[in-house]
Amino acid sequence: STHVGGGALDNSTQMISRLALLLVASLSSAALVARPLSSFPGAPRAAASSAADGDSRPLNVRPARRPATVLMADAAVAEDGSETFEFEAEVAKVMDIIINSLYSDKDIFLRELISNASDACDKKRFLSLTEDGGSAYEGRIRVVADKETNTLTIEDNGIGLTRKEMRENLGRIAQSGTKKFTEALGSGGDATNLIGQFGVGFYSAFLVADKVTVVSKSADGEQLKWESAAASAYTISQDDSTPIEGTGTRLTLHLKEDADKYVSDYTLRDMLKRYSEFISFPIALWTEKTEYETVPDPDAEATEGEEPPTKTVPKTSNEWETINVAKPIWMRPPKEVEEDEYSEFYKATFRAYDEPDAHVHFSLEGQVEFRALLYLPSSVPWELSQDMFNDKVKPVKLYVKRVFISENFEEQLLPRWLSFIKGVVDSEDLPLNVSREILQKSKVLSIISKRLVRKALDMIGDIAKDEDKFARFSSNFGRYIKVGVIEDRDNKDALLKLATFTSTAEPKASGTTLPQYVDRMKEGQKQIYYVSAASKAAAASSPVIESLRKKGYEVLVALDQIDEIALQGVGKFGDFDVVDAAKENVDLGEQSDEEKAEVEEAKKSLEATCAAVKAALGDKVDKVEVSSRLTSSPSALVQPQWGMSPQMQRFMKAQAAATGDDLGGLGGMGGMAANLELNPAHAAVRKLKGLVAADANATSTRDYATLLYDVAAVSSGYELADPAAFAARVVTLMTGEAEEAAEEEPPAADAAAPADAAAPADAAAPA
After folding, report:
1. Roughly how many angstroms between the first and final C-alpha of the chain, as a whole number?
2. Are β-strands 209-217 and 283-296 bridged in parallel, bridged antiparallel, or unpaired?
3. I need a labelling partner for 216 at 20 to 30 A (CA). Which of 75, 97, 545, 683 fits?
4. 256 Cα distance to chain centroid
5. Would you say the C-alpha torsion 352, 357, 360, 361 has a positive or negative sign?
6. In whole angstroms, how far apart are CA 64 and each of 24, 70, 220, 235, 713?
7. 168-180 as b/e, with b when 16 or more CB fall inside 10 Å?
8. Backbone angles phi, psi at 555, to 5 degrees
9. What residues contact 305, with CB distance under 8 A and at least 6 apart?
10. Which ranges in 331-466 belong to alpha helices (H)?
11. What's the burial of 471, exposed, middle or buried (CB within 10 Å: 0-12/13-18/19+)?
């Protein structure tokens, strides 16, 4: 305290006030609220006022009494009288934000503190290389948990801290000693692997600790102790605890009561492997080992002539266990990495048991810099076998300078159709928040994502050259490629070359690709055909592709809804349109003049028959017409241009039932009635023509027309809404006599499907 009096009051007060500002400003560079300097107790205006009132009491300047407030500087007064102020901060509030709001997961503290220790070792390694006559340096990091005292100690033999560095780097928020070290090196900083950047990672220790003690010794300094309780204030003093050999830092966390799990060997081992497995320097954990020894049992009775009885007793010991045995092979040039190293890394990092079918190791330099290593598994991960897009499966692990950051991002580095890929990405350019937990949206992310997708496609393209591997890949992950065709418009063309589909002409179970299909196309074929069916056998016997089969045209088979949606969205592949063979107005190939004349003649001949069948079936069909696609079947159902296939209708119906939706709404989505096509050359159609000529409104004629519709529905893959009525009509046809039950029912009740195509029970007709 200083007593100030007389005319020297103003100048002396201002000088002391500025000294106070300099002392307090060292606590933090953060700032939140701006206020005039004169609003604080002891400021110049207040001191002058006291002097004017004749108050000559001593002015006490004690920054330590109000550490919560940081004053940055006097106001700068411009000529026009305006005042400019620097921001101020409530230090306690800032510390509370850093400790309790910056990090979402308490486990992060160990990652941050190990990274700090690694930086200290890396600084010493770099200096030992640049100093003349410097000896070889072997950095190390040790972790010791003490259950009795509930403390966790992290010790390194790095560069250590001087008293000044303790004040600046530990006592000043957002002051990054690592960043300053790198800047001081200039261009030489590129030779280091320093991790620190923001200067707040150290304070993550207070997530789990009530008190933090830092003991450190630098090359030319004494052993010092920095200590802070609850991050409210800190002290620096000489340390007389266990001496540190050479240089280094010993950080001790006095854990909170609810943080006792961090003294468990198992927990620490798991966290170190997850976050710091690829740190450059060995991390040793002081672990407890239990072994069992066989010793004589003094309590057991010994039998003469036999070996003395023994018993097994546990023996507990402690030893150093090196945690980070795996090497970050993605940091090395691909030419220097052996194939067995890639395989070993894949199994260790992703806890996999299979051998990867392929891998791609690359780096990108320029506008964005990153290194990446991607793997293609040879088997489906168990999680994906249960759910194709399981949220628990994260394809990419993100690292920054070998430190694991996260694998859970709102914006994924790979699209979901590549969720079966495994890989690591290491980049300093990714837009992370200060806690290094959240990946923010940016152009950088988009660039990295596009390059990863391109490299993954190249890797799969290389697999396609190996027939056996590609067959296995298609069996395991073929559906993902088709999802990519549906969702990824940018890479659609590349994906179409890799997507495989079952084919009526391809005997292999792995199917065929579109390029292979095009290579086998018949001369004169102008379109690529596909049809939806429950199986390859059902597709081969479908009446809608009879004329295509007769011409020798190959037809792709969409076995599930993903196949069908993918093929529907292709539009054009090369010079050929991809079309559904079960739709109306499909180009089935060129017809000769004779064939065209026969069709026209049949249309005229069966005009009355088609009208009678339409009248008998009502709204179950949109129209009835003569077919040019049928060769052996009497009839077939084909969909209008925007209608749903029977397979898609069943899928939508199942989805509606699973979600509890009104099944009646299904008709509104795909409830177009199908078209019934008749084969004019078939005996059944000729018989129907005769019945219509005799009496178009007779019950037998209407039943016959309905039966022809039922046959078309069954053979085309639709379900019958009333199997009993269909069976009755078949029995009538077999015996030539109508059953009693059939005679009692009016003809309209005998329909294979209800007249309203949108009715919930209408599964026979296309929904």
Report:
1. 92
2. unpaired
3. 97
4. 34
5. positive
6. 8, 11, 29, 11, 89
7. ebbbbbebbbbee
8. -125, 130
9. none
10. 339-350, 382-386, 443-463
11. middle
Q: Please, which residues have CB within 8 angstroms of residue 339's CB and are 6 or more apart in sequence?
A: none
The rounded distance, in Å, linking the Cα atoms of 136 and 140 is 13
* Exposure string over 48-68, b if 16+ CB within 10 A, otherwise e: eebbeeeeeeebebebeeebe
CA 760 → CA 524, 644, 719, distances in Å?
Answer: 44, 15, 13
Structure tokens that stand for 396 in this block: 């990419």
Assigned token pair, 675: 């078209």
3-state secondary structure of 155: strand
- Alpha carbons 564 and 556: distance in angstroms, whole number: 10
SS3 content of the chain, % helix, strand, coil (to 5): 40, 20, 40
Q: Please state the length of the chain.
A: 767
CA dist 94 and 100 (Å) reads 10
pTM, 2 dp: 0.71
| 21's tokens | 């500002």
The confidence score (pLDDT) of residue 145 equals 95
Beta pairing class for 151-156 and 310-322: unpaired
Confidence category of residue 699, pLDDT binned at 50, 70, 90: confident
Supply φ then ψ for residue 32, to 5 degrees: -130, -40
pLDDT in tens, 167-206: 888 877 655 555 554 555 454 444 444 444 445 678 888 8
Counting runs of H as helices and runs of E as strands, what totals does the chain give?
A: 24, 26
Lowest mean pLDDT among 58-67, 445-454, 465-474: 58-67
Asked if residue 340 has pLDDT above 90, the reply is yes
The two structure tokens encoding residue 201: 């990672």
| Tokens linked to 85 | 């102020």
